[in-house]
Amino acid sequence: MTSDSVRATAFGTAAGNYDRYRVGVPDSVADRLLPTGIDAALDLGAGTGAMTRRLIGRAKRVYAVDPDPRMLAVLAESCPDVETVEGTGERIPLPDASVDAVVVASAWHWMDPDAAIPEIARVLRPAGDLIIVWNRRDRTVSWVADLEGARMRITGGDDLVEQRVRHYLDEPWLPEGAPFADIVIEDLRWQAAMSKEDIARLMTTYGGYISAPEERKPEMLRELIAYVEADERVTPADGRDDALVDVPMVCHVWRATRN
User: Fold this and answer.
1) Is 122 helix (H, G, I), strand (E, B) or coil?
2) Could you tell me the CATH number of the domain that includes residue 119?
3) CA 158/CA 177 separation, integer angstroms
4) pLDDT tens across 245-254, in order?
5) How far apart are CA 25 and CA 62, in angstroms?
6) How far is CA 114 from the centre of its chain?
7) Structural domain tally of the chain?
8) Residue 95 is part of which domain span?
9) What is the chain's alpha carbon radius of gyration, rounded to the nearest angstrom?
10) Coiled-coil intervals in this record (predicted)?
11) CB 233 within 8 A of CB 142
C-alpha cells in the first residue's frame, strides 16, 4: 500500500457520514460514463459505494475494491449483490482480463499511476475502458468557491486534491508505454438538491475535519453550519417548495480505452 493509500484509509473513521453526505452522480451522468449491458465492471477505490450503486444494472457483475474494510462494510449493506474485496489500485485482487470497465470515482489522486496503470490494464479485457471521474462542487460558481474557502479556513484543510485533479485533467500524465489510447476528457455539469445542514455536514467528510482533534470538531461543525446559514446566496431556487438548495456540481471525466 502506498503512503497515499494509507492516508486514504483515514476516511474509514467517518464512513457513515461519508456515505450519507457525499453526493453520487445522477443517472444522467452515469449513462454518459458507462453503457448498460456490459458483462463486468470494477469500482476501484469504491469507498462506501456512491459510484458502485450506479454500476449496478449497467453491468451484469459488479466488483468493488477498496483498501478500507470499514468503507466496504458500509458499501456491502446497501449493495449486497456486489462482490467486495480489499485491495488497492496498485494491487487489484481480480484475475487477468476479468472486467470490461474500471471506474475510479474521486480516488485516483490516492493512487500511484506508474503502478496502478499496468495493474488496471491487467484486469481489463481488450477494448475495455478506464474511466476516472471526480464528482465535485462547481467552484466556478462564486458561492461554491467561497464555501470551499470557508471549509479550508475552518477545518484547516489543504488544496492537495485540487492540485492533483488539475494535473490529471490538464497534463499528458500517462506512464510511458501505458497500453491505453483514445483519451477523452470532459466536464459534465449537473445540480444536487441538498438541505443547508447537509451542505455544512458535507464539509466534515474531508481530511481537514476528519483528522482534527475530536474536541475541536463540534465547534468546527457549528462554524460550518453558521456560515452556510448566513450566506444569502445559499437559498432554494425559485419554484422549489422543499427548502432544498440546488448545489452546482461538475463531474470531471478522464476516459481511455485498453488497446
Assistant:
1) helix
2) 3.40.50.150
3) 33
4) 999 999 999 9
5) 17
6) 21
7) 1
8) 3-258
9) 18
10) none
11) yes
